Amino acid sequence: MGIPLTESFEQKFNRVLKKINTSQSHLRETSFEVLSLIVDVLGADKAEITVFNEDFNIRTMPFNEEKAVKFRLRHGYSEEQWKPLEEMGILREGARFALEKKESRMVSDTRSEQERLKALSEFLEIGSWMNHVLCKDGTVLAYVHLGKREHGYYTGEHLERLGCLSELLATAINVSMGFERKYNRVLKRINTAHCDLKKTSLDILDFMMEIFDADMGEISVYNEEFDIAAMELTEEAAVRFRLKRGYREEQWKRLEDSGVLMESTRFSLEKKESRVVPDTRKEEPAARALSEYLENGSWMNYLLVNEDRVLANIHLAKKEHGYYRQDDLERLGYLSTLFATAINLSSLWERERKILVNFIESLNRALELRDEYTAGHVERVRLYSTGLARAMGLPEDEIEDVSMAAVLHDIGKIGISDKILKKKRGLSWDEQELIRRHVPLTDEIIKNLHHMDRARLYARYHHESFDGKGYVMGLKGDEIPVGSKILSIADAFDAMTSDRPYRKAFFVEEALRILGDPEIHQWDDRLVRLFDDYVHSREFFDLAVKEGLIKFDEEGRYYRRKASTLRFRSLSKFFVSLQAPSY
């Protein structure tokens, strides 16, 4: 008996295939679509799909229905028929047979079955049936069962066609498994103690674009404190950051220059409405022209709103006309809960981080009040170390950890006596050993701040020496974390360029000469050269002036060395290439 291949079948097949490949693929929902298609094509009166858990292995695990079966779906069975199948264990035995034997079967006429099975078929009103077992690499994924009232209906040809159609289900299962792995990977990243919102948002955007088969995507995250009803709308005030994929540079620049991005932001913040445009050919003329330029045939925006506050906007676009529809927007909304979780966790982390930083800075201020000679030391070390980290091209999250390490690095000195901290002569050997205790004390104080583990690591090793003669662990060379090497240079530079009870501050030129002395092997030469270049740069000069480390007279013409924190033997010669004011 031939199977008619009509246009309606092709349409339904393509719709199911699209649903499998371009949504987040709810496996249960998609499996039901596949079952419905198979029923239509193969003329079944009753049907069932059993999908197995991929991690269940009947060779090594005792058979257990709950552990083995992910879900079952049925079509055409009455409650009175289905209940005995469950209670008598027939469904369970069918699952066990499929897992153990991995054999597809067909019974053309149930009147030829054994008496017990024939009685069951009569009760179920089935005259002909077939099972197809789906396997991949020796693992049973699922089986599909079809039943027909008519005796002698199914043939070997039907079983072959059931096998072909069941590949749709195999595709759905594989897509679903891939989706779950990606979803769980993103979820794991979100749930880390320190959720880097920008990186996580890019992961989420990539995930969304893959799931919805988008050609272009954009995520805009808005500042929590921005209120469009009370504040002027500007990019800086309203938008925390934007991330994009798939846009050519000239396309994105046009969106920025034409004000389209800001108008989109205004619409999002004022209207708080998610939208889908299935076919851009039906847009208003101006919007249609923009879509043509961007090669967008269909697009959708989903707004994340929490307690009437817009958190973010997710925009996906496809070249194909008629691609996205309302159900896609609803699915995008469902998946966007991932993004909302990331934003909320990031906000919680940021608030917690600010509280901790404020507390640690309070400890540092308490230290500075004890010792006037170290006033401002932590903040200067932070400025120098983050400047060097940027000059090295480190990622922003590592720069943030270096900055935090600078804030943390000396808080252990709160446990060192004033007698030693304020001593005006050189320290004895025993006193040096006591002062060195501030490193393990720092580590002890911050050991429970697990989301600051990398910053803690940098602070722990900032007194290690490149030649292995430092403390506390005697690490050398590349055994020392790069953040610790940076901190060590910044700490030493500030120590040398600051007054101490037992000596006056060195000139900047002298401090840099000591750092770069080839006879001294305390610091990483490559990083010292980068630091020297950085201190000679316009960026450093402007920062030092802004922070009051370099001061001029009221007219801004003459360098006031005695009033400056950083003292230069000759400021004009040091910054000769900058064409700075006359000194």
Q: Can you walk through the features of this model?
A:
It contains 25 helices and 10 strands. By secondary structure, the protein is α+β, with helices and mostly antiparallel strands. Helix 8 runs antiparallel to helix 14. The N terminus is likely disordered.
Q: What percent strand? A: 5-15%
For the termini, the CA-CA separation is 100 Å
Low-confidence stretches: 1-7
Order of strands side by side in the largest beta sheet? 2-1-5-4-3
Largest sheet: 5 strands, antiparallel
Nearest-angstrom radius of gyration?
A: 35 Å
Give me the count of strands: 10
Per DSSP, the total helix count is 25
Instruction: Give the averaged pLDDT, no decimals.
Output: 84
Q: Summarize the amount of helix as a percent range.
A: 40-55%
Quaternary organisation of the protein chains: single chain
What does the overall shape look like?
elongated
Provide the structure class: alpha+beta
Topology diagram in text:
Blueprint: H1 7-22, H2 27-42, E1 46-52, H3 65-68, E2 69-75, H4 79-87, H5 90-101, E3 105-107, H6 115-124, E4 128-136, E5 139-148, H7 156-190, H8 197-211, E6 216-222, H9 235-238, E7 239-245, H10 249-257, H11 260-271, E8 275-277, H12 285-294, E9 298-306, E10 309-318, H13 326-335, H14 337-370, H15 377-391, H16 396-408, H17 418-421, H18 429-436, H19 438-446, H20 453-460, H21 482-496, H22 508-515, H23 525-535, H24 538-546, H25 571-574
Antiparallel strand pairs: 1-2, 1-5, 3-4, 4-5, 6-7, 6-10, 8-9, 9-10
Keywords:
25 helices; 583 residues; disordered N terminus; single chain; 5-stranded antiparallel β-sheet; alpha+beta; 10 strands
